Structures
1.
Amino acid sequence: MRFVEMRPEQLQDAVRRNVPVLMPAGVVEYHGPHLPLGTDFLIANAICEEAARRAECVLWPPFSFGPTLSWAAGPAEGEVDFSPEPFFQYAREVLRHVISLGFRRVYIMQHHQGPEGLQVLCLKRAAMEVVRDLTAQWGAEWGRRAPSTLPVPDIFGMIKVAALDTFSAYPSPTAERVPVGHAGKGETQLIMAAYPETVRMAALDSLPVLPEWLLDATEATAQEGRRWLEFCIQGWVNELGARGARVAPSLKDSEQ
C-alpha cells in the first residue's frame, strides 16, 4: 500500500493491525557517466518497491535528496549536496507525523555513504528526537517500568534506520557482502538489474582517466545484480512479515 493512495479507513486499519511503514532514502549525485544521478536512491527504491509487493507494509514517499559533500562532482554534473540541517529537520517532521498517525513500526532503508555517512546520521538523529518527544510524555523514571506496561514496549526499535542488507541472512560471518562501491561494479550491476534502461556502459570511454572507484565498473553483470537484489529483498520481506504482518507471494510464486 502506498501511503498517498490510501483512504482514511485503510490508514486506520493499518495502524490497528500494526502494519509497518517502509521508506526508501538515498541521494542524487554523480555516479560516473554511465549511471543515473539517482543511483543511490533508485537502488533503495527498487528494493522497497518489491519488498512492499511481497510483504504487507505502507510504502511511504521517499527521502530522495540528502547530503553528498560534493564528493564525486559538482552541480554541473548533477550533484545535489543537500544541506544536513534542513534535511534533518525535514526528516524529523516526517517521522513525527508518521508516529502521530499511530504507526509504531517504521523502517527507513537508507543507501548512501554507509552506516556512518552524514545522511544516515541525520536520519538517526531525527528518529531519536522523535523517540525523546514521545517518552517525555511518560514522565521521569519510565525505564523502571516493565516494557509491557509502556505505551510503546519496543520504543528503541520503533524507528529503524537500516541498510540494503541489514536483515539479509549471510551464510557465514566471512561470506561475501553485497558489493556497493560508489558507481563501481556493485552499484552498476544493481542498477543494471533494476533500471537497465538508465545504464550506458559505453559512456565510460568518455573519461580520459577513470577514478579508482570506477575501475571495476566494467565487471558488472545484470545477472549478478539480480542475485544481490533478490538477496536484499528477501531479507526485508522476512523482517516486514514478522510480528503478524501478512506476507504476499513472490513474483515466482504468483506465476505458478
2.
Amino acid sequence: MSFLILTGIWSCGNNADPSSWSSEKLDKWFEKGEWLNGWKVSPAVETNRRSFAVSYFKNMERWDKAFEFLKNNDRSALEVKRYDIDGDNVYATISEYLTKNEEDARYEAHRKYIDIQYVIKGQEVIGLAPLADKMGTLEEYDPARDIEFLTVKNGMNLKANPGRFFIFFPEDAHCPGMKDGENSTVRKIVVKVKTD
C-alpha cells in the first residue's frame, strides 16, 4: 500500500516533478509528444524542455486547452482578434502583418504569460536570447500589457514557418516579426498561457 501526499499535482511516490528528471527521461517525454493532444505541428528544437515540462505539469489543464484550441480550429479562417480559451488563463490572438527589417524590430519579454507562437501562413525570423543577456531597457515593463522591450547581447535568429511552433518563457527574450529575405505578409497565432 503506497501513501501519497499530494501538493498541487506533485506526488511523492510517482516522480511526477520534471525538475528532477534526467535529461533522458525529459527528452523521451518531450519527443513522445502526447502533450500536443493530437496537434500535428512540431515544436522548435530550441524549446527549453525542462521549463516546458515543469510548467506543463503545474498547469496541465491550461496547456491542454491551448493545444486543443490549436488542433481543433482552422487557424487560416479565424478572424484577426483575441479568442478567450479559458478567460485570462489561456487566450489566443490572431494577427496579420508585414515583417520588419531587423533594425526596426525589438526584443520583448513577458512575466505573467508564456507564449506559444505559430506562423500560420508565410515565414519570418524570430530572435531569441536568454533574458540574462539583457543589455538595456527600451521600454520599462508594463504590467497591464505584460511586456517590456529591451536590447540583448547574444541573440540568435530562428526561422519560423508553418512547419513548427515556438514556446517562449519569461526567461526568454524574443524578437518576432523580422523578415526572412524579403519583407512579406505573415499570419500568426500567439497563444498566451498564464504562468501562475
